[in-house]
Write a structure and sequence with these properties.
Helices cover about 40% and strands about 15% of the residues. The longest helix is centred in the last third of the chain and has 29 residues, at about 715-745. About 45% of the residues are buried. The protein contains 26 helices and 28 strands. It is an alpha/beta fold and about 900 residues long.
Length: about 900
């Protein structure tokens, strides 16, 4: 044992150990060991957004608890760190921090800016992760924009294409007019927004109108004028009146089909003839019973457009502004059925142009009186023509982009998709093969899979990402043919590279990049350096060290599938789902055996942290102020799957724990030097002879067993709670008080053997307490262990080294000792209570105590009585056949 410093300097000691662990490579994975002896973690690659928040500390620290525990049990832990630094999040960061726009500069220059900013952001993240003592192996770091990642991402794409899982198609799809790209279903959120339900009159063309069923009051209003001759007006409810020129049909319920058989409707203001079509998806009880089908307002419009083979009238451009150029062309061309697209014959061309000019270039909605949006403009015109009969304010859910927050539009664009809709049952089965912690989180995955309504869109119309290894031929006779790079060409940039056998003039490169999830979804394969057997790289080269190939001892076989995926619950639908998809499609395997799902870190008032609310807690400042161990302690108190509010009180408890552990160790250190025989294990050490020493070691053994079981079930919070109960209550509050007189033995009233029994028990308790706390508060435990157990520390190199976790077999359980301990705590509590009720100090003397006699031998009873007398300052203690302890306090305090 080396001498323990007088005080604990949190900042200095934490920085010292962080630097030491990095320099010594304490957490390096040994690639030469077998898979059976390894524990593989698929670490979340944080999005390099430039925002370091408490969520990073919260969830990553919780994963680190498990990593440290597994390493201490003897596992060869593979614990990498990745950085998801390509894609739209990085582009948005660059545009914000550099105050530039991608569209205002060359693609190459913008990518250079992205690379520079992402490298700086990675440095900030590394510094944060090092400061919270994540025990990652930094030699295994990867970036999703690196050459290795781009190569494997492109290989993944080629593998999906070759297996028929990836395809390109022109289809109506969700478009973000702010970020100027298509997005996937998982990136869509519903936002409650204010709007209006507008009831608008459409003309029904009918030279001989008939009344609706019912009395005369239910007959349609008469038509009093218009271009189509006889007819009547019907109300149609919509929240998107600006899409009237994009209307291609009115839909009614099949029960109402007879009313409109053979009839057509005419859109107000624009005079466009549209069919009236019956469809069971129309809700008769909602609105007016007639619904506009536009190209495109929502998913139902897409479904009807496809099912009924309707015309296409797209009036919105990619910037979310009205553009009638395509509509003009459609009016000048015959439809596929040979009839006019628009039936606007009664309006002269000049009138059409004037009408279109009122709307073209307008945003969908803008309430500025000087620059009204298309919605406000058309409402004003409908009111002027008496075609708006009702306008009711509502709040409804609007589909928006998760990143930009912008309301989405549906536009026909060419995109790359991965087939998932036809694989729902297989994906559910794969999800069920994994063990979810907590188990109920698996329901979220299954609900997401069952609720999918579109294939995974993996293409983005952006710049900073992994390009598709694709060109389109311009050669005569093969125009538009897809040309794919060969695996040995990768990574390729189709904008500068060429397919084999083609010249620059013979191809058009695919300018899109992959969704960033298309790369981060192969994080297990990135760590394993390949896609595995049967993929395009059946014999992958060495990317960052380790063996290539796919044999039983290859790097891939040792790392795939992983043992654990730790992540937050909000990205189950993205990261967990997409990784499950890729592992299934590439490897027909699950990507990991276990998922550990964390909750969110909320503000103190249990709301989401946000700058606008002023409730954001900055992790860097918090760590500097409170210390890493205190912050980690707070993270350790939260349970898996549950959102947890930031708690200054728990931080105080964390700091108090560090201080208490230091002081308790200082007390024990005074006595450990008295040890005359080398310790063995708590179960075999014959020096531990006294009943209360056997009790504390029995309780210690129970704690080790239960904490180990909790960690094995990924319930780290339970393991921490069990350790706290033992340390604070059993060890500090009770055991140290019970044995204090005996371990000091200043008056020689105890034998050497009795004193040595306490010294040995202290040794085992302290050794084990430090190990049980080590995953949670690594700095103070390492500091204490290196001093108090210097020989063991020198042999292992660290408390956090492999094989240091306490084993249950080293702790014997003594039933009689447990009974003795229970008796001692009862008597001690009764004595303390008597002193408290009499308003006396804990040191106030007690004349006599009569206590219920436990079923113990005389030697044990005597030893128990002597320790109790020392702890309670009791002059006489007798055992009797009574139920309640009887305490008689002394009339006056002992002389000082």
């Amino acid at each position: 044992m080396t001498k323990l410093p007088e005080s604990y300097d949190t900042a200095a000691i934490e920085k010292k150990w962080q630097a030491h662990w990095l320099a010594q490579k304490n957490y390096a994975w040994d690639e030469n060991e077998s898979r059976a002896n390894s524990y593989v973690i698929d670490t979340p690659p944080p999005t390099v957004s430039g925002l370091l928040h408490m969520g990073h500390v919260f969830s990553y620290t919780q994963a680190d608890f498990v990593a440290r525990y597994q390493r201490m049990t003897g596992k060869n832990v593979f614990y990498p760190m990745g950085f998801d630094d390509n894609g739209l999040p990085t582009e948005r960061l660059v545009e914000k921090t550099k105050k530039i726009r991608a569209v205002d500069m060359s693609r190459e220059k913008f990518i250079e800016e992205c690379l520079s900013v992402s490298e700086e952001a990675r440095k900030e993240f590394r510094a944060l992760f090092e400061s919270i003592a994540l025990s990652v192996d930094w030699a295994q770091e990867y970036h999703t924009i690196s050459d290795d990642s781009r190569r494997l991402s492109q290989l993944s794409f080629l593998d999906l294409v070759s297996k028929g899982h990836a395809y390109r198609e022109l289809r109506p799809f969700y478009w973000d007019p702010v970020d100027q790209t298509a997005i996937a279903q998982a990136e869509i959120i519903d936002k409650e927004m204010a709007s209006f339900q507008n009831v608008i009159l459409f003309e029904i063309i009918d030279e001989s109108p008939f009344p609706l069923a019912g009395d005369a009051d239910e007959s349609p209003p008469p038509f009093t004028g218009g271009d189509k001759g006889g007819g009547y007006l019907v109300p149609v409810m919509t929240t998107r009146p600006e899409l009237i020129p994009a209307c291609v049909a009115l839909m009614c319920h099949p029960d109402d089909a007879a009313k409109y058989k053979g009839k057509k409707a005419v859109t107000p203001l624009f005079g466009i003839e549209v069919p009236i079509i019956a469809d069971e998806k129309v809700d008769k009880e909602k609105g007016t019973g007639l619904v506009m089908c536009c190209t495109f307002g929502d998913d139902t419009d897409k479904e009807w457009w496809t099912k009924h083979k309707l015309d296409t009238r797209v009036i919105l451009n990619k910037f979310g502004k009205l553009d009638f150029s395509a509509l003009r062309q459609l009016f000048s061309e015959p439809s596929s059925s040979g009839s006019s697209r628009g039936s606007m014959d009664a309006r002269d061309e000049r009138e059409h142009d004037e009408l279109f000019a009122l709307f073209e270039g307008k945003k969908v909605s803008n309430t500025d009186p000087k620059h009204l949006g298309a919605r406000e403009t058309i409402i004003a015109m409908l009111k002027e023509k008496n075609l708006l009969t009702e306008q009711k304010p509502i709040t409804h859910a609007v589909k928006c982009a998760e990143r930009s927050g912008a309301p989405l539009e549906i536009l026909p664009t060419q995109q790359w998709f991965v087939r998932v809709l036809d694989k729902k049952p297989e994906l559910v089965a794969k999800s069920r093969e994994c063990k979810w912690h907590p188990e109920w989180m698996a329901v979220r995955m299954e609900q997401w899979i069952e609720g999918l309504n579109q294939d995974w869109c993996i293409s983005r119309q952006r710049y900073f990402g992994v390009p598709f290894p694709v060109w389109y031929s311009k050669r005569a006779g093969e125009e538009g043919k897809l040309l794919y790079a060969s695996p040995n060409q990768l990574p390729v940039n189709p904008l500068t590279d060429l397919p084999k056998g083609y010249t620059k003039d013979e191809v058009t490169p695919d300018a899109d990049v992959m969704d960033t999830w298309a790369t981060s979804s192969i994080s297990p394969q990135l760590s394993a350096h390949g896609l595995g057997p049967g993929s395009p790289d059946s014999n992958p080269p060495r990317l960052r060290g380790g063996e290539g190939g796919n044999g039983p001892q290859s790097r891939f076989s040792k790392l795939f599938p992983a043992d654990l995926r730790p992540q937050a619950h909000e990205i189950i639908r993205t990261w967990a789902f997409y990784t499950l998809v890729k592992a299934h499609l590439h490897n027909n395997q699950i990507p990991w055996n276990n998922l550990m799902i964390s909750g969110w870190c909320l503000a103190e008032d249990k709301t989401k942290m946000s700058k606008s609310k002023g409730n954001v807690v900055t992790p860097v400042a918090l760590i500097e102020e409170k210390g890493t161990d205190a912050v980690r302690y707070w993270a350790g108190t939260s349970r898996l799957g549950q959102d947890t509010a930031f708690s200054p009180d728990l931080l105080k408890i964390g700091r108090k724990l560090v201080t208490k552990l230091w002081n308790a160790t200082q007390f024990a250190a005074i006595h450990l030097d008295k040890m005359t025989e080398a310790p063995t294990t708590a179960a075999t050490d014959k020096a531990v002879t006294e009943i209360l020493d056997q009790w504390i070691l029995s309780r210690l053994g129970e704690t080790v067993i239960r904490a180990t079981d909790a960690f094995a079930a990924y319930e780290y919070a339970d393991a921490l709670d069990l350790t706290n109960q033992f340390f604070w209550a059993d060890f500090c509050d009770n055991y140290l008080e019970l044995i204090k007189k005996r371990v000091y033995n200043e008056d020689g009233s105890f034998s050497v053997a009795q004193q040595q029994s306490a010294v040995h028990a202290l040794y085992y308790c302290l050794d084990t307490i430090l190990k049980l706390y080590a995953p949670f508060i690594p700095h103070v435990t390492e500091e204490l262990y290196s001093h108090i157990f210097a020989d063991a520390y020198a042999a292992k190199g660290s408390l956090h080294a492999r094989g240091t976790w306490p084993q249950a077999k080293h702790y014997a359980s003594h039933e009689t000792a447990l009974l003795a301990g229970k008796t001692a705590l009862t008597v001690l509590d009764d004595v303390r209570k008597a002193k408290s009720e009499a308003s006396k100090s804990v040191k106030w003397p007690v004349d006599t105590v009569q206590a219920a006699k436990p079923a113990l031998g005389e030697a044990a009873l005597n030893g128990l009585a002597e320790d109790l007398k020392g702890a309670g300052n009791i002059r006489q203690l007798a055992w009797a056949n009574i139920e309640a302890t009887q305490v008689t306090l002394a009339e006056q305090a002992d002389a000082a």
